[in-house]
Amino acid sequence: MTPLDALRRYLRQWAEIQWGHQTRAARTAALTYSGMYDYVLDRGRVFDSATALTADEVDVVRVAAEEAEAMHGCAFQTRDCFWNAQVLAMSDPTETVRYCEGFAQGHVFPVHHAWATIGGKVVDLTWRRVSLGDEPDAYHEPDDALDRRIVGVAPEGFVYFGCDDYPGSEEMQRRMDEHEVCWSFLDCDDEAEMVDRYSVARVSPRPPMSPAVRMLLEANGMLDEDRQSDGAADVREVRMDTDDMMPWEPEVPPCI
């Protein structure tokens, strides 16, 4: 199984688990997606992490990174991927650096992640090219060396799978100012924003639930047999508790 195949399988399993849970709740909302896993799996694509940036593209990224540090104090530290990628895109005067969000396979396992692109190529100033195991003391330390980051060419086995259909710089800045926090676009505390995103039309029909996931949901009492057909492509009635985070993370292992 390739890293991309493993990532798609991970997304599919979590999408099915989220859907199985959300149909048990009490409040009604018309959603086409069960959450961020389902959304990215249906609307996402692989981003190029095997092609080097041109000299001009490197210059654009370097200027944007310097502007991000000067204007926003962004040091591009690890674990700050949403902040790093959004501020980098907002700080690019050429408006050729785009914000992307989805899931990425790095040194260890797939995670919800954000990065930027230029010319369709990955620019990830959050992750380092070396693993935490290789440089445990220095991995989380900020530095200014772009050659230590993922700029165009990622290490072997890395996969970036996500979407770039997010607002431009002005809207990102307005959102950041309004909430006083740099949120993910796929998983934030603004319920209205989440409902808007996950009620758009699907690109492809929802595939049938796999037997393994169905068995897991049934065993945990999480499956609602009253939901509409698994293969339906139209808008469904999804009942959610008002206290539920959306998308909700069930307390079961992601790998089956």
Distance N terminus to C terminus? 15 Å
Structural class: alpha+beta
Low-confidence stretches: 24-28, 227-256
- Tell me the number of structural domains: 2
Sheet with most strands: strand arrangement: 2-7-3-4-5-6
**Rg over C-alpha atoms, rounded to the nearest angstrom:** 19 Å
Total beta strand runs: 8
Provide mean pLDDT, rounded.
Answer: 78
Helix content: 25-40%
Number of helices: 7
Strand content: 15-25%
Gross morphology is globular
Largest sheet: 6 strands, antiparallel
The H-and-E topology, N to C, reads as HEHEHHEEEEEHHHE
Topology of this structure?
Blueprint (H helix, E strand, L loop, with lengths): L2 H20 L4 E5 L4 H8 L1 E2 L8 H18 L8 H10 L6 E9 L4 E9 L2 E8 L20 E3 L7 E5 L5 H11 L11 H7 L13 H9 L16 E5 L16
Antiparallel strand pairs: 1-8, 2-7, 3-4, 3-7, 4-5, 5-6
What does this structure look like?
The protein is an alpha+beta fold and 256 residues long. The protein folds into two domains: 6-35 and 198-240, no CATH class; 45-179, no CATH class. The chain has helices at 3-22, 36-43, 55-72, 81-90, 169-179, 191-197, 211-219, and strands at 27-31, 45-46, 97-105, 110-118, 121-128, 149-151, 159-163, 236-240. The strands form two sheets. It has a six-stranded antiparallel β-sheet with strand order 2-7-3-4-5-6, sandwiched between helices. It has a two-stranded antiparallel sheet with strand order 1-8. It is globular. The model is unreliable at 24-28 and 227-256 (pLDDT under 50).
